[in-house]
Write a structure and sequence with these properties.
- It is built from 16 helices and 15 strands.
- It is an alpha+beta fold.
- The protein has one domain: Amidase signature (AS) domain (Amidase signature (AS) enzymes, Alpha-Beta Complex), CATH 3.90.1300.
- The strands form four sheets. Strands 8-10-9-14-15-13-11-12 form an eight-stranded mixed beta sheet, sandwiched between helices. A three-stranded mixed beta sheet has the order 1-3-2, sandwiched between helices. A two-stranded antiparallel sheet has the order 4-5.
- Helix 3 runs antiparallel to helix 4, helix 6 packs parallel to helix 7 and helix 11 packs across helix 12.
- It is globular, with a radius of gyration of 23 Å.
- It starts with a helix and ends in an 11-residue tail after the last helix.
Length: 503
């Protein structure tokens, strides 16, 4: 037994040790600040921090902030810890914590619910090829982020996991359908996260949350093994990030042909997307398009921010002309709707047959049921004509872009909306909801229809303190050129220090 003198000495030692431990824990958590994903990988490589320390810091951040912003759909903490214990591959992102989007991206045996009560409790039977490539790059997957049901809208609100809130202002949307990913990155949980885009779902949340979001060319990033394209080729996968170089390095680590794929995007100029980030893009011919294809209204602050981006491009030596391709927006919009509705209806019917459950309002949201009902009425000829319409749009766009390197436009027609306006339970019918969604996001979907790469850059803020995204769309297969331009704009108008104030 210790005497009084020993007890006092031990107490004094503990009193000193407690703040030291607390300070050490705070230091390990703060290592997430001020670094992009490549920066965190460098800290691991130089042994300034361990993968376990980074993982636990990210988990602690997620646990602290998720109750406020609601970006976590699934928690794979034990899976991540087991991956580190097993030994991580040596790759460009070894030890960096990572979140997948909870939509059509699978880890065998783990939950993937797609933001839908209809898939509640579903455990994947396969691991996605993209997940394999992420893990080969050294990323440590510790969870999945929220999405609206089946990724059907530009806000992340659903009946299964609830509403995801924008870290810049929790009363506003974080965007969709990759809103959980964008909220987690904007809140500082991790510096980059997986996202998908079937009509703007990378670029919309990037714009809403003040991030960089690159939608890749069709066929660039793998989507298998269950199917190698989604929504008839409209959908694709990549990421939302703070830095341009993270996006490029992630594309380097994941792009390329997969087994069974019908096509693949061409290899990047110079052999690496990352190598293009610091290269001079040269004098680009830029088409400035502020008025949407359908002529719908644009918020004055958004229009002014886009004009300012055009002037910035001119100051960097680029030629900017007011010009836009002539797209039959009614035909392309209907074609896209047919392909998405038929795909949603087929998946719901297959799931219903498997479960022996009739699709209804107890398991699906009203707008989703609208897609399902319409999709069941469509024929093979409807699908064929829709593909023909989108191919015609792709030809029109390619002809236009023979004279221009990129198209500059707003990402969205307004700053982030308040919650409850374009969710899948809006209290209005499907056509009214569709009109609302289209007026908010009239620019993004054309790149999905034509397969082109398109990126949103966080170049502006509204007077109310909400981010405004500016979009640049390039020719098919030319992500390398977009990365060169993005790197130039990031250097000229840096956004790294502009983050929401989160106590």
């Amino acid at each position: 037994m210790m005497d009084r003198r020993q007890l006092l000495a031990t107490g004094a030692a503990l009193a000193v040790a407690a703040p030291v431990r607390a300070k050490k824990k705070a230091m390990k958590s703060s290592v997430l600040d001020g670094h992009d994903a490549m920066g965190l990988a460098d800290l691991v490589k130089t042994r300034q921090v361990s993968p376990t320390e980074l993982l636990e810091a990210a988990i602690a951040r997620a646990e602290a902030l998720n109750p406020r912003f609601n970006f976590m759909a699934q928690k794979h903490y034990d899976y991540a810890r087991a991956a580190i214990a097993k030994g991580l591959p040596q790759g460009p992102f070894t030890g960096v914590p990572w979140l997948l989007k909870d939509l059509n991206t699978y880890i065998a045996g783990e939950l993937t619910e797609g933001g839908s009560r209809f898939y509640k409790g579903y455990r994947a039977t396969v691991t996605s090829e993209l997940v394999r490539r992420y893990e080969k790059a050294g990323l440590v997957i510790f969870g999945k982020t929220t999405t609206p049901e089946f990724g059907l809208t530009g806000t992340t609100e659903n009946k299964l996991t609830g509403d995801t809130h924008n870290p810049w202002n929790p009363g506003h949307i974080a965007g969709g359908s990759s809103g959980g990913a964008a909220a987690a990155v904007a809140a500082g949980v991790i510096p980059a996260a997986h996202a998908t885009d079937g009509g703007g779902s990378i670029r919309i949340p990037a714009a809403c949350c003040g991030l960089f979001g690159m939608k890749p060319s069709r066929g660039r990033i793998p989507m298998g093994p269950l199917r190698t394209e989604g929504w008839g080729g409209l959908s694709c996968h990549h990421a939302v990030t703070h830095s341009v170089r993270d996006s490029a390095a992630l594309m380097d680590a994941t792009h390329g042909l997969e087994l069974g794929a019908r096509y693949a995007a061409p290899e990047p100029e110079g052999g690496s997307f990352l190598a293009n980030v610091g290269r001079d893009p040269g004098k680009l011919r830029i088409a400035l398009m502020i008025t949407p294809f359908a002529g719908s209204p644009v918020d004055p602050e958004v229009a002014a921010a886009t004009e300012a981006a055009a002037k910035l491009c001119e100051s960097l030596g680029h030629q900017v002309d007011i010009a836009a391709p002539k797209i039959d927006v009614a035909a392309t919009g209907q074609a896209s709707f047919v392909l998405i509705a038929s795909a949603i209806a087929a998946d719901i019917e297959d799931r219903a047959k498997l479960l022996g459950i009739m699709p209804g309002p107890d398991v699906l949201e009203p707008i989703t049921l609208g897609f399902h009902g319409y999709g069941k009425t469509l024929s093979g000829m409807d699908a064929a004509r829709s593909h023909n319409a989108l191919q015609a749009a792709a030809v029109t766009m390619a002809q236009f872009m023979a004279n221009y390197d990129v198209i500059l436009s707003p990402t969205l027609a307004a700053p982030p909306l308040k919650l409850g306006q374009i969710n899948l339970t809006p209290g209005v019918d499907l056509p009214t909801w569709g009109a609302r969604a289209a007026v908010f996001s009239p620019y993004t979907q054309i790149a999905n229809m034509t397969g082109q790469p398109s990126m949103s850059l966080p170049l502006a803020m509204s007077k109310a303190g909400l981010p405004i995204g500016i979009m640049f769309t390039g020719r098919y297969g030319e992500e390398a050129l977009l990365f060169r331009l993005a790197g130039q704009l990031e250097a000229a108008a840096p956004w790294a220090a502009r983050k929401p104030k989160i106590s």
